[in-house]
Amino acid sequence: MVLSFLFLTLTLATLSSATYNCKNEIVNLQNPNPYYYPATWNEQRPAPVLGANNSCSFTILVPQGHYAKLVMSTEVGDKNSSIRIIDAYNNLYDGSHEMKNPWYFPYNRFLIIVNNGAPAKFAFKVNWAQYPSGVQLSAAISKKPRVVSITKNVFTAQFHAVTGLSLLAFPEDLSYLYALRSTFVFEGDDFNGHYVDSLYNLYLAHKQWITKKNIYIVNVEARGALDQLLVQEAGYTQAIDPYQQMSCNPSSTCYRYLGTGNPASGLVYVGNQTQTLLDISIPWNSTLSVYYGTPTSSNLYKTYDGTSIRSMLPLKFSAEVVQYIVNGGVTTYNFKFS
Known about the structure:
Largest sheet: 5 strands, mixed
CATH superfamily of the largest domain: Spermadhesin, CUB domain
Helix content: under 10%
CATH topology of the largest domain: Jelly Rolls
Structural class: mainly beta
Strand content: over 45%
Distance between the termini: 63 Å
Radius of gyration: 24 Å
Low-confidence stretches: 4-16
Number of domains: 3
Number of strands: 28
Order of helices and strands: HEEEEEEEEEEEEEEEEHEEEEEEEEEEEE
Mean pLDDT: 94
CATH architecture of the largest domain: Sandwich
């Protein structure tokens, strides 16, 4: 009993001596060296313990022409504690349970805000770098869509179209979306244009992003992932709502529900797997039109009547871009991928 009490006392004393406190800081560009907090931490070590009842913020400044990469190792100790990240465009992210998956931020700053009751693990690293130079791809988009492998390598591209542009992202691995964080979208011809968002945030919206302007896209760091970006002329897709990605794991069975489309709803597949439609529910007076490519008359593969399509199942479809467009009404799909 005495030994147990002694062990507990020593443990608490060790934890108390190992904790630290934080204070508000403004962090400027430190190229070529990264900024570590605390200064004694690095990625090969476990995060140190922040003492109880700390409240502090870190303002990390990002100069024009640069981006910042943030790596965090955090774990709050109770449900009332929080570690939050806020970028310059007021996007709020929960950083309370971070496992060193990188975040990326454009000009001009981002904030890390800590409010903890119980002790919490907390450490981070920031690198700054200039944007990649040059443009690897410049393309006009019309009736033929463009599919780009967006996160495998460092990549820069400009796109333009007469009626504007539509973007949809398709992650390779639905359980690992973090690679999309390194891709930025700007309106204009380069990174000096209006910043729209990261591809990570655009994907989480689960709808197409549309602009009337030219766009510049940059993936600032090779992530080795095979995430895909579908670029289309907006005039062919902007009236379709809802209009969503069919992001399903390879060789899986996938169920999708789309609410009433006015005037139409759309489900979009990008990839190299055969999609077998096992079941569908659509209004009897609606039709399903399947397009291989952007939904234009020249890309129409086949149209199915709502009164008879179920008697024709299963139906197989196979193309790099397949679009399922229903002209009104709630729709449910059940697909098998192979």
